[in-house]
Amino acid sequence: METKSIMIVGVGGQGSLLASRIIGNVLLSQGFDVKVSEVHGMSQRGGSVVTYVKYGDKVYSPVIEKGEADIIVSFELLEAARWVSYLKKGGHLITSTQQLDPMPVVTGAAEYPENIADKLQELGVDVISADALSLAEKAGSAKASNVVLMGLIASKMDFPDEVWKDAIKQCVKEKFHELNLKAFELGKNI
């Protein structure tokens, strides 16, 4: 099997590291060689966080170059636009519609760009967007928006739902199983 690449992008504190653990767990359970690399940047200060996940028969490096990602999962719209150049032709960009103002917008030095998802689609990008934050709140906690997006990515990967649910159970504390499984289902059923 050729090596496949997934990028998870967002802002510090959105749960991208948990998402990478869930995806890695799913892939390992299916017998793939998996490499994960986390690049935190200024994650503690709300800065960009990027995680690379590569899998296949044999993976030598987790690094993903521009134009290589089969799937990009973005927890925030501006991050989707920032990293779209890493998506390969025919790849999928899965994004939350959540908007978090970066510092230049907060200080008034810039404005948050409008209609990001529409503009990306006009460029020929396969954009799958969802209000993951609202769905997570419906599941019981805004913090579960990352798992809503795991439901969305599961719809683009050919693994049984039970594998994803088992991975979620292994990666989150037991007291949060029900909430996260509900978030996963809401994402999967968009």
List the SSEs and their pairings.
Blueprint: E1 4-11, H1 16-29, E2 33-39, E3 48-56, E4 69-74, H2 77-83, E5 87-96, H3 103-106, H4 116-122, E6 126-130, H5 132-139, H6 145-154, H7 161-171, H8 177-188
Parallel strand pairs: 1-4, 4-5, 5-6
Antiparallel strand pairs: 1-3, 2-3
Helix pairs in contact: 1-6, 1-7, 5-6, 5-8, 6-8
Question: Your description of this structure?
Answer:
The mean pLDDT is 92. Helix 2 (77-83) links the parallel strand 4 (69-74) and strand 5. A 6-stranded mixed beta sheet has the order 2-3-1-4-5-6, sandwiched between helices. It has one domain (4-188): Pyruvate-ferredoxin Oxidoreductase, domain 3 (3-Layer(aba) Sandwich), CATH 3.40.920. The chain is globular, with a radius of gyration of 16 Å. Helix 1 (16-29) packs parallel to helix 6 (145-154) and helix 1 crosses helix 7. The protein is of the alpha/beta class and 190 residues long. It starts with a strand and ends with a helix. 38% of the residues lie in helices and 24% in strands.
Kindly state the percentage of residues in helix.
25-40%
Rounded to the nearest angstrom, the radius of gyration is 16 Å
Instruction: Please trace the helix and strand order, writing H or E for each element.
Output: EHEEEHEHHEHHHH
DSSP summary: helix tally:
8
Q: Under CATH, the topology is which?
A: Pyruvate-ferredoxin Oxidoreductase, domain 3
Superfamily at the CATH H level?
Pyruvate-ferredoxin oxidoreductase, PFOR, domain III
The unreliable regions are: none
Please give the CATH class: Alpha Beta
Question: In total, how many domains does the architecture comprise?
Answer: 1
Strand order of the largest sheet: 2-3-1-4-5-6
Distance between the termini: 29 Å
Largest sheet: 6 strands, mixed
Overall morphology:
globular
Give the tally of β-strands.
Answer: 6
Report the mean per-residue pLDDT as an integer: 92
- Level-2 CATH architecture: 3-Layer(aba) Sandwich
